[in-house]
Structure formats: structure tokens, C-alpha cells
Design a protein that fits this description.
The protein is an all-alpha fold. It contains three helices and no strands.
Length: 66
Amino acid sequence: ITRYVSLASILLSICIPILLAVFQYPVEAILTGMFFAISAIWRHQSNIQRLLSGTESKLGQKGVKK
């Protein structure tokens, strides 16, 4: 919808532990999902900054050369 791959990755990683809890998976699975969600968000810090500043490139858009 937004064509931001990084935003989709972040939202998916947030949804996974929530869905695990909703579907009553074991606590260990929920905690593992939370760990991976936090790890994904941590790795996307630079993407989050670019999203907030409006400089993140969209899917199909040519990247900015440095």
C-alpha cells in the first residue's frame, strides 16, 4: 500500500508476537516473537529515521547515490 518495504517489515515484526498471543501460543513462542520483533526494529533504526524525515525510498524507486 505504501511501497515502503522497511515499513512493511517493521509492521510485520510487530504483528507476529501479537498474533501469537491472540492465538494463545505458548509463552515461549510469544517471547521468541518479541525478541525477533525487537531485533528487527533495532536493525531498521536507520530506515525509521529516513521514514520520519521523508527520505526513505519506495519500492521501485531508484535509490539516492552517495
